[in-house]
Design brief:
The structure holds 2 protein chains of 2 kinds.
Chain A lengths: L2 H5 L10 H31 L7 H7 L6 H28 L3 H28 L6
Chain B lengths: L5 H29 L5 H11 L5 H26 L7 H28 L1
Helix pairs in contact in B: 1-3, 3-4
The chains are: A mainly alpha, B mainly alpha.
């Protein structure tokens, strides 16, 4: 393993300290939270309910009141899943892309894309008001 | 050292593949849900694609990916925080496989139950 590689993020070993150690810890803690949030979301939407029931009316009913429980549940899932996923992809890019300029561009695209998705996701989940409700 | 060859390596490769797959679906899912802002017609038109028969196996595939990633994530966390974790990582992987099978089969049945009627 080259010196440069060792300095980068990695899921293989626990980082010695600093920001990378916090991200390492975040992946484990958010993973535990997502275990409940993501599998709970799948169980409710795909097993208790079904993908066949999902429609505008279904979403409108789920989000019928402002800042209700499901909005916060979905927002927590959105935020943690995106942070966990984007940081995971960051470690993959760090591991496999050796070209410095290409890596920097990919990481910037990942950061911009992740922020964009989090922004529009947050607006929908927290601020969507159904028509005729 | 843990990740060289055999069960440890495969569990890690699957962890990365399922992770990337789930992130791609998450991006798609945020974009499709965004369409509720455009009103019932647009949103219903797009989510109806998810209900097509040929799409349903992908729904089960997503469940499989999330379930594997979750269970193997617990395995990784156990290896990291339990002193003897690394010694038993292979046993933990078999534990992941057994739990996966036990949870996947009933879950997949419930997802697709309307198709069996």
């Amino acid at each position: 393993m080259s010196r440069r590689k060792k300095k980068r993020a990695s899921v293989h070993e626990r980082p010695q300290g600093g920001l990378e150690l916090w991200w390492w810890l975040f992946m484990r803690l958010s993973g535990l939270a997502l275990l409940a949030l993501a599998l709970g979301h799948l169980a409710i939407m795909h097993m208790v309910h079904s993908v066949e029931e999902v429609s505008y009316e279904f979403v409108a009913q789920r989000y019928s009141t402002t800042f209700n429980f499901w909005r916060w549940y979905d927002w927590a899932l959105l935020t943690l899943a995106l942070l966990h996923g984007v940081n995971g992809l960051r470690t993959i890019i760090d591991d496999y892309v050796d070209h410095d300029v290409v890596r920097l561009m990919l990481l910037m695209a990942l950061f911009v894309g992740g922020t964009f998705l989090w922004g529009i996701g947050s607006i929908v989940v927290l601020a969507f008001t159904p028509v005729g409700a | 050292m843990l990740y060289r060859g055999r069960e440890g390596m495969w569990s890690w490769i699957f962890h990365r593949l399922t992770g990337v797959g789930i992130l791609l679906f998450l991006a798609l899912h945020i974009l499709d849900t965004m369409l509720v802002m455009w009103g019932p017609e647009t949103y219903n038109h797009i989510v109806n694609i998810y209900k097509l028969p040929w799409f349903r196996p992908l729904e089960v595939g997503l469940f499989a990916a999330v379930l594997y990633h979750a269970l193997n994530g617990i395995r990784i966390t156990i290896i990291d925080f339990w002193d003897d974790g690394a010694t038993y990582q292979r046993h933990l992987f078999y534990g992941v496989m057994i739990l996966f099978t036990l949870l996947f089969l009933p879950g997949a049945y419930f997802m697709l139950r309307s198709l069996f009627r």
